[in-house]
């Protein structure tokens, strides 16, 4: 252990000498110590957490070379340029080099003139490259963006599967370290299994950066919202993510027309156009980047003040990575997700379009559902995020997310909940949100009549609301854990134990009343978000008589059940 203590002191000196930082961040210190101790290490840290230093500093303290597997050519070049500028001997090998250039760099490594060599994962699949590497003294292999090895992740790269055979085929197995910002259990399992990390030390740190104000806004006029937001924050750098190229082009056009210095980025543009707009953004020549999720992996721009999602992403991992590009410098920043139910349809469509096996598909639907639950949640969004990623937290509300800042009063929604739950119960828990909504609305649609649901006591009990409002309400109950959806393309709503308690009158449902669609202004929040009571009905009192009569019947059903 003595050796390691000495090394940590050296590590800190190097951090000051080369990087000019007085100290490691807490997570970095643990990871560096683990790597210097020779253990395989898995470091999970949010975007901007400082993963690079975790392998760069140990690289300087180890006798041989550290090979860094990195997924993006542009990212590799940026990092190597930065290292060289600091006086650290580093190089990269990728497809932009000629054979001669690549060989020169390998020779330099063999002479011990390099501490870090960055390579694209595809290299590791090449026989000649593996042979060359076998002749070098490699102390450590660091795998950056390691979630790319997992099919459960959102950036699966087949060539990451070559990492493990490569490492284990070397004459002497180096220590292996993997880094990512993605911390779901499946992805973690995959990284350990597929990279064959040997009894690794795993470190997960701070997903909930407290400078980020997370918001989910439902039912906004998205375009207007964005135009207003950018107008009032136009001088600050920000990213707007949209689901499709078409949407990106449209928003980009509108912003340009309004005189906003905006750029765009998506896979339909040429490499050159993409590179130019990325550079322009990095150097603040443009302020707003409108992009699909093709933009951003490994972008090191610390002063992004906001990330707006024009559409809900497909899962929490993707969301956290994209939103996490805001505020990497620790300054207060906004992460705003503009949600509409149409986004769910879009994501389902994308899942269906993508040929894949059933297991994977089911998993994607499950993750999508968790993303939707996050969007409908009325409790602190940071809790929601930390809970999802399994990170421990003291249950103190963050105070700055849209749930924490929601000024609408909590209202007693017990009766609404009882109506919905009893309807689901009467429908034998065999149908999805939309049919339940149709029944509560009292709709005459074919399916309702075909099943005879127009004869149910709960039929039409929410006829004063739109079906959309009813669905939203049901989704809120799902997000709050009263109900659950089964997995798959056509999820069925099921009652959870808590719903039974509500039906039996043992549990009161306090929620922020959802707003009726009609009350929503065009894009402005403010006044439309004030407190209101049970807005989309005559209010509990008007329906109470019949409801309570029905509930007596339902309670009897339940007792018999
Ligand atoms: P990640 O790969 O985790 O997204 P990076 O390695 O790109 O993050 O680091 C993000 C930023 O944080 C960089 O600008 C980096 O220089 C800075 N940084 C990293 N470690 C420290 C530290 N100990 N003190 C101050 N700044 C740091
Ligand atoms: Mg990184
Ligand atoms: Zn909060």
From TrEMBL:
CDD domains: DEXHc_RecQ (cd17920), SF2_C_RecQ (cd18794). The keyword Zinc applies. Residues 517-528 have a biased composition (Low complexity). It catalyses: Couples ATP hydrolysis with the unwinding of duplex DNA by translocating in the 3'-5' direction. Its EC number is 5.6.2.4. Residues 32-201 form the Helicase ATP-binding domain. This is DNA helicase RecQ.
